[in-house]
Amino acid sequence: MRVLLTSHGSTGDIFPIIRLGRALLEAGHEVRFATISFFRDEVERAGLEFIALPPDWDQGGLSEAMRDLTKAKDAIDLIGIIYQESLPYIDEIFTILRAELAWADVFVSSYLFSSLCALAQNMGVPNAVITFTHNAVPSPSYPPERYPRLLVYPAALRRAWNCLLWKIGNRLITWKIKKIVGEAAERNGIEQIPDFLLEPADRVIVSVSPGLFEPKTLWSDRFVFSGYLRWQSPEDSALDAELAAFCGDEKVPILTFGSVNFNESRKVMARFIRCWPKGKKLILQSGWAGLKIEGPRPEIKRVGKVSHDQLFRYGSMIIHHGGAGTTASVLHAGLPHIVIPHIGDQWFFAGEVRRLGVGLELKCSKWPEGLPKAVRTIEKSKKLPRRACTVADLLAKEDGPATAVRVIEEMAASRDAEG
Question: What is the CA radius of gyration of the chain?
Fold first, then answer.
């Protein structure tokens, strides 16, 4: 089977697709991954054939784009900004993918660009999208995020209400996408943009834990919860030695905001430094925002790009932004969270962390002042670390890559049988 993968965005949008590609390769399939050149080394390190897509942004360009996303007012506005960013490059993207689809037996895209599946559908290629968060998964059991639940009403009325809201949300987001890229789609022979929420592709692989997050009732059988798809940066033995020397015999809090970038990061970090207790050890991952410490603070160790699994072995708790990939890594590490959401679905993941009983949430606007107290709260808690270990034990029994490969193989086999 020949599989064409594509995704755009930050590390959290790319690494799960790389992990899927690696699993497909190990299962004996041919795999090509079309994405921006910034991720070429990671794609090829996994053994996948790399196909270059525009834009040819460096770290600065990607960081600026992420900073623009923090201005979004809501999910629909966020989708609009993402698609507006793609507009100057979309004709070239369609041209490259059309040529690659002539080779492919199956096409897989990240859910953010499910509109690309319309091209595969036009060419008769079975297609799937990968979603890294379950708040976009429709179900009669609950309404879309941030919509009210009719908890005191009969079950049949609640289901009808929830279904109505999902249909409305689907129309709004799909309309927004069509408004932005509709003309470009028509130029490329695409008459119909898929429904973003309800029917984005032949299959929707939800790459989060079914044991933790799968609802009792899904919208249709095209939605499948696979479990996490996790790909890691290479481990660094020299950094291991540095971190072991810094931490000594203790585990320390780790602060990482991943690919999040935000305005006035220098001022924010200055506030953090003023509030962080003298002598209290902490590991700071600089991330895409280039976070750094101004002035001598020997109790704070700054690191750059590194495997989450390697870094988190030194953590007593992880302070993070609530990105899908980082949240998954902390859950697998069995450590408590302090989530400081900045954008998009990060507020949703902060809520899920609280619901699971594995961590706390701080407001983005006040986290530098509130962080020391939150750290002390977790250090005093017996319940949060114990619950975090329980969740990690559950995740260790799931195999997201194997499940996702099986879904794709079954989808291709079903199309072959129909043909």
Answer: 22
Handedness of CA 47, 48, 51, 55 (dihedral sign): negative
- On whether both 360 and 338 belong to a single domain, the answer is yes
Helices (H), 87-154: 90-101, 117-122
**Which residues lie across from 139 on neighbouring strands?**
142
Q: Range of 191's domain?
A: 2-228+399-418
Q: How far apart are CA 272 and CA 284, in angstroms?
A: 12
Contacts with 339 (C-beta within 8 Å, 6 or more apart), sequence order: 320, 321, 322, 327, 346, 349, 350, 353, 359, 360, 361, 362
Give burial (CB, 10 Å; 0-12/13-18/19+) of 343: buried
Beta partners for 320? 256, 339
pLDDT of residue 227: 98
Number of domains in the chain: 2
Q: What is the pLDDT of residue 419?
A: 59
Q: How far apart are the first and last CA of the chain?
A: 16
Whether cis (ω within 30° of 0) applies to the bond prior to 55 is yes
pTM: 0.93
And the tokens for 278? 């003298």
Please tell me whether residues 339 and 408 are part of one structural domain: no
Q: Say if CB 223 and CB 141 are below 8 A apart.
A: no
Query: Do 154 and 36 share a structural domain?
Result: yes
- How far apart are the C-alpha atoms of 330 and 386, rounded to whole Å? 14
For position 69, what pLDDT does the model report? Answer: 79
Single-letter amino acid, residue 181: V
Beta-carbon count within 10 A of 6 CB: 22
- State whether 198 and 121 are in the same domain: yes
Burial of 293 (0-12, 13-18, 19+ CB in 10 A): middle
pLDDT reported for residue 51: 98
Q: Give the angle subtended at the CA of 4 by the CAs of 199 and 183, to the nearest 5°.
A: 55
What's the pLDDT score for residue 416? Answer: 67
Q: Which segments of the chain have a pLDDT < 50?
A: none
> Beta strands of 251-310 (E only): which ranges?
252-256, 282-285, 300-303
Domain with 64 in it: what CATH number? 3.40.50.2000
Show the tokens assigned to 5. 């993968």
Q: Are 46 and 114 spatial neighbours (Cβ–Cβ below 8 Å)?
A: no
Residues 291, 284: Cα–Cα separation, whole Å: 8
Q: Enter the DSSP assignment of 122.
A: H
- State the pLDDT at residue 126: 96
